[in-house]
Amino acid sequence: MANFFPRWTNWLPLKIAICGTVVVCGLTGATWYYITPKYTRVGYQPIQPVPFPHDIHVAQLGMDCTQVQKDNPKLEPVRASWKTGQPVEWVQLHRTPDYVYYNHAAHVNRGISCASCHGQVNRMGIMHHDKPHSMAWCLECHRHPENFLRPETQITNLDWKPDWEKPAEFVAKYGQPTEATDDWAKKQKLTQEEIGQTLKERWNIQPPLNCQGCHR
Ligand code: HEC
Ligand code: HEC
Ligand code: HEC
After folding, report:
1. Which of 149, 190, 191, 207 has the fewest CB atoms in 10 Å of its CB?
2. Considering its fold, how many domains does the chain have in total?
């Protein structure tokens, strides 16, 4: 009996299987690599119903309310909201998934600045997502909070830098870690690690590292 299918077709299923595997692996790899928060979130800068330039408002902080540009057409949604009582529908930028427990108070009352998680919002004309807010990112700080901790008076000071601290005043107020050998009060300036290490010890900072800490 004549062979109905030519010989090469014997290999066809194998070829299809190999091709399929390569394509699937490629797609998985690409998705894994690119659809990470770093690519999908950082820089996210949605257009809001009313433009709100943080930089201008912060620069003019303390301005008198009578200076509000009451006829500016850009502010129409705000006027409409006032008349109708309907809130302005701002676009949410930062959103942790529902299976993650997150609490602002637990951070800003324990020496972590808004700037560590949102960047220098006071310098943003249009607000954007500045940090990845991925699990790895949360853990990076939870493992080494000393790289971020700052005095409680500087939490909302988005321009603060470690070398602004006067060592003598800092040490008088917070002390220095027990294992430090030299007198930090005599230093020219303090580093972030020195400030962070002191505060970590003084406030007994222990961010959760176990899964239940953030997935309750
Ligand atoms: C430890 C990190 C961290 C710190 C510190 C922090 N935030 Fe957040 N912030 C977040 C996360 C995470 C979310 C998303 C929360 C959610 O999904 O409900 C968020 C959400 C917000 C939002 C919601 C608006 C939106 O659309 O994104 C505002 C406003 C905000 N933070 C302001 C602040 C201010 C002001 C401070 C300082 C006083 C601050 N945050 C400090 C992590 C932080
Ligand atoms: C820049 C540093 C930093 C980042 C980023 C950060 N955390 Fe924290 N987290 C802390 C510190 C500091 C504490 C307080 C630890 C303490 O009180 O001893 C804390 C505490 C917590 C707690 C315990 C709160 C409680 O009520 O018991 C949870 C939960 C938590 N963080 C979740 C998160 C999640 C989720 C993220 C990422 C979206 C995140 N954190 C990002 C520093 C950080
Ligand atoms: C400091 C807080 C924190 C801790 C501790 C933590 N997670 Fe997460 N986890 C998160 C956040 C935030 C996300 C959401 C990430 C995102 O939206 O990009 C997440 C996402 C996840 C996801 C979803 C898949 C993914 O990769 O996005 C899984 C699964 C997960 N965590 C498992 C765990 C396990 C297992 C542990 C313990 C070994 C753990 N987590 C500890 C904060 C935490």
Report:
1. 191
2. 2
Please indicate, yes or no, whether residues 85 and 73 belong to a single structural domain of this protein. Answer: yes
* Per-residue pLDDT tens over the stretch 83-96: 999 999 999 899 99
Q: Ligand 2 within 6 A of 205 CB?
A: yes
CB of 104 shorter than 6 A to ligand 1: yes
- For residue 95, the ligand 1 atom closest to its alpha carbon is 17
Q: Are residues 81 and 161 in the same domain?
A: no
Ligand nearest to C-alpha 58: 1
Closest residue to atom 2 of ligand 1, CA basis:
117
Q: Is residue 16 part of a domain?
A: no
Residue 83, domain extent: 47-91
Judge contact between 51 and 126, C-beta under 8 A.
yes
What is the identity of the amino acid at 179? E
Select from 149, 198, 154, 161 the least CA-distant residue to 176. Answer: 198
Percent share of the chain, pLDDT over 70: 91
- Highest-scoring range by mean pLDDT, 4-13, 44-53, 184-193: 184-193
Residues 166 and 193 in one domain: yes
pLDDT per residue over 165-183, tens digit each?
999 999 999 999 999 999 9
For residue 34, is it within any domain? Answer: no
- Work out the average pLDDT over 121-135: 92
Residue 81's pLDDT band (cuts 50, 70, 90): very high
